Structures are given as structure tokens and as C-alpha cells.
Amino acid sequence: MTETASQKAEEFGFHPGDIIQEWLWDDDVDDAIRASIEDLTGEELVDEDYGSSVDGVIIWWRDGDDEDELSDTIVDATGVLDESGPLWVLTPKPGRPGAASSSTVQNAAKTAGMNAATPLTVSPDWNGIRLRAFGKGK
Questions:
Q1: What number is the average pLDDT over the span 125-138?
Q2: What pTM, to 2 d.p., does this model score?
Q3: Domain boundaries along the sequence of the chain
Q4: Which residues lie closer than 8 Å to 28 by C-beta, 6 or more apart?
């Protein structure tokens, strides 16, 4: 892939008009990813306190955060996510501060009843892992 998903936000599976909820934001997130999603959808990202259903979710997760917290966050996020909406866990790439092993994300996803896909490079410093409910296709 010659373009990263932050340059080509449709790789996330989001569409114009979608409401995307962002979990575990902190000042280390990649603002280019956030901006590209907002540019594509035409909507600002909403936070964990958003009170309605959403069309997609991104979760920023770093090593050192509690794996059980990630599982709980995934469960909470799927509770407001439209049935067919994409859910992504974004983690720092290997060698970056806060880099998380893919097995940690896979274990948390499994605990939450989800499958984790192969990581996708979404920016120079972040990978994304799409989660799907067990039994769902690609």
C-alpha cells in the first residue's frame, strides 16, 4: 500500500456522514488520522460520553494500559456501535513508546467476543487492528 490509511481514511471502512466515536484519546494520538477521518465523514469525532449509536469506533490503546481495561472498552464500544460498523484498535508501532504486542490486543478482543485482524499501518507511528464479532466475515 503506497498511501497510509491516515491519508486515505476510507481504508477504515468509514463513509461520508458517519458518526465515529473515539475512545482513550490522549495527547499522543496522531492528529492526521483524526483529521482524515473527519474530512472523509464530514463530522467531528465524538468521545466516549456520546449518548447515541455510532457508525464506527476507534480506540487508542498503548502498552502499559490494563488489558482488562481494553476488553471492557471494546465491550462498551460495541454497545453503541451500529451492528455493521467498523471497530479499530490503534496502537503505537513496534519501537515507539507505548507499542503494544498484537497478542495483547488479540487476547483482549477474544475476551470481548471479537476476532482481531492483521495489523494495518495507519500512520508512521500507529498501527490499526480491525475487530469483528466472532462469525463475521472479512
A1: 79
A2: 0.89
A3: 20-132
A4: 60, 62, 92, 97, 98
